[in-house]
């Protein structure tokens, strides 16, 4: 079956995961130079103040919520190409995941920094780390707070590669 749908603006915008026939494919990065690439992403999960207090005190019923969320985020980062179709498998050289408790906002912010020396960027890996970190917090606390909300997941900056450096003008608070 042939897809005859006109890609129109998508093709004009320079999206690269479509071939000349409009079919999805993995981009060929074979001719690119290996460069040091870095991406920083962040996101937030809001919750009831009592849930945040239990996380901050380290006495949530399931244990060290942030410690387990950090490990889950790092593990997921290494499996990004298994989760995201057409994403290249990368040899990561460094992954850091940090959590910041915001008592006033009754939330936890997750930041992930991912690095590699390779032919393609690590933005997807950084975003995966943040989302899995936040999902793990949700999973570990959902019995007492099903109304938690994950928001503001985004790339804050990237460095390296052909397109150079990029940074969001105003990082999410």
TrEMBL record:
The keyword Lyase applies. It catalyses: (8S)-3',8-cyclo-7,8-dihydroguanosine 5'-triphosphate = cyclic pyranopterin phosphate + diphosphate. It comes from Massilia glaciei. GO terms for molecular function: cyclic pyranopterin monophosphate synthase activity. The gene is moaC. Keywords: Lyase, Molybdenum cofactor biosynthesis. GO terms for biological process: Mo-molybdopterin cofactor biosynthetic process. InterPro entries: MoaC (IPR023045), MoaC_bact/euk (IPR047594), MoaC_sf (IPR036522), MoCo_biosynth_MoaA/MoaC (IPR050105), Mopterin_CF_biosynth-C_dom (IPR002820). Homohexamer; trimer of dimers. Catalyzes the conversion of (8S)-3',8-cyclo-7,8-dihydroguanosine 5'-triphosphate to cyclic pyranopterin monophosphate (cPMP). The keyword Lyase applies. This is Cyclic pyranopterin monophosphate synthase. Substrate binds at residues 86-88, 124-125.
């Amino acid at each position: 079956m042939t897809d005859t749908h006109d890609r129109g603006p998508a093709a004009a915008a320079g999206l690269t995961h479509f071939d000349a026939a409009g079919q999805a494919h993995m981009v060929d990065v074979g001719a690119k130079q290996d460069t040091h690439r870095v991406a920083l992403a962040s996101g937030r999960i809001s919750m009831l103040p009592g849930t945040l207090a239990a996380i901050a005190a380290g006495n949530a019923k399931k244990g060290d919520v942030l410690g387990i969320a950090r490990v889950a985020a790092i593990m997921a980062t290494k499996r990004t190409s298994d989760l995201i179709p057409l994403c290249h498998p990368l040899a990561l050289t460094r992954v850091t995941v940090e959590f910041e408790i915001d008592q006033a906002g009754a939330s936890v912010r997750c930041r992930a920094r991912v690095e590699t020396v390779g032919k393609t960027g690590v933005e997807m890996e950084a975003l995966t780390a943040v989302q899995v970190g936040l999902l793990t917090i949700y999973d570990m606390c959902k019995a007492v707070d099903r109304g938690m909300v994950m928001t503001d997941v985004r790339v804050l900056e990237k460095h390296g590669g052909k397109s150079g450096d990029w940074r969001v003008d105003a990082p999410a608070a």
